[in-house]
Amino acid sequence: MSSNISSEKTNESSTVSQVDPDYQKEIFLKQLGEHVYQQNMKKINAEFFNVTYGSFVRTLIDFYDSDADKCNEKLKAMGESIGSRLIDDFYSKVTNQIPRCSNLKDLGNTIAYVGFKMYINTVPRVIFDETNRTIKFRFESNANIFNKFVELPDDIKEKKLYYSNIVSGIIKAALAGIALNCDVEFISDTLLDDQYTDIQISNVTRIKDEVPMGQ
Amino acid sequence: MVKIYSFWIFDRHCNCIYAVEFDTDKKEIQRLTTNSSYMHEKAKLMYGLIFSMSKLTNTYHQKSIDYKETDELFPLETNFKKISTGSYSIHTLKTKTGLIFSLVTDINDQDRMEIELQYIYREIYLKHVTLNPFEYNDYALSESETKGEGFRHIENSNFDKDIYAFIEPLL
């Protein structure tokens, strides 16, 4: 009992003496996401969204004769045309409150705590890999709202259709809008009997600003 | 009372995608159209001015805080907001997505036009252009239309109307 108390005390003193700026930034981003979600976002009915997206993927599968690769590709392409518009919407909604990103970890946190929170009201866990310079967004079993009501039939499951692949396209194009080139892909999905849904961002590079002809 | 002489939007490919010029007695309005070479020439000059000013601003900014270019991914940038001359001033807003909104006004204004430019971006541009699925998202459709060589521009009557309605009381 006494040891517990003493350990708590040391913890407290350590947090007071050195406040981790990264941690502070995370808290701020979480609050910002919550605030923007409450104040500036229009909400729609979740069931309506799920049914719309479901019928849309269903049509796509029928159109491509259940060719999962083509469906994944098409979903991603559609996501890209959404994302390139969404980035302007994002910046106009968060206004000037958003702090500047100074490293990849910040970028991941901003996408997760503000971006995902604003648009789908779910916050994934952010796993940042320092050595490979990748960011992973991990959704627990039921957290991905795209997957609600969905159970894939066995033949499509075998072909590895990533049902919510549109999200990867959205992230890719949104980052391209702020001059960051990257690869975004699903690496696992709970609908394919994996434990988590993981979306990975890798190979982030900067697109050089364009200069006018003759400069 | 502020007098507005003209309003410009440039995209990240250095192209002018919208321009409108007002006369002092509110009568004549010059617009950017496909075959008005006068406005295209002017747009190029305008972009050149803004481009070189922002280059200069960034150089001085990085010098002033003793910044060394180590982080290629997230460079530290600042934006200039206003140029003033003896007879007019140019207010600009550069968004994170690379769009530049610019208003040319007379020098009588005490207030900065930042709020107005933000409003145009957030309410008018977003509503009529970004979220409109039938507008281009990127006005340069091919490689040859980038780097200031593009010719496409916003042709959206609702956008025109809203911009005019917003700017008219300020004229």
TrEMBL record, chain A:
Source species:
Hanseniaspora guilliermondii
Spans through the membrane = none
Would you tell me the protein name for this molecule? Answer: Related to Trafficking protein particle complex subunit BET3
Q: Identify the main location.
A: endoplasmic reticulum
Q: Does the keyword Iron-sulfur apply?
A: no
- List GO BP terms, alphabetically: Golgi vesicle transport
Where found, per UniProt?
Answer: Endoplasmic reticulum; Golgi apparatus, cis-Golgi network
Sorted alphabetically, which InterPro entries does this protein's record hold? Bet3, NO_sig/Golgi_transp_ligand-bd, TRAPP_component
Automatic annotation (TrEMBL), chain B:
List the Pfam families hit by this protein, alphabetically. Sybindin
Q: Which GO terms describe its biological process?
A: endoplasmic reticulum to Golgi vesicle-mediated transport
The cellular location(s) given in this protein's UniProt record come to: Endoplasmic reticulum; Golgi apparatus, cis-Golgi network
Q: Which UniProt keywords apply?
A: Endoplasmic reticulum, ER-Golgi transport, Golgi apparatus, Transport
Record's GO cellular component terms: endoplasmic reticulum; Golgi apparatus; TRAPP complex
The answer, when asked if Endoplasmic reticulum is one of the entry's keywords, is: yes
Report the InterPro entries cross-referenced here.
Longin-like_dom_sf, TRAPPC
Q: For this UniProt entry, which residues form the secretion signal?
A: none
Which family does the UniProt entry place this protein in? Belongs to the TRAPP small subunits family. BET5 subfamily.
Its subunit composition reads: Part of the multisubunit transport protein particle (TRAPP) complex.
Q: What is this protein called?
A: Trafficking protein particle complex subunit
Q: What is the lineage of its organism?
A: Eukaryota, Fungi, Dikarya, Ascomycota, Saccharomycotina
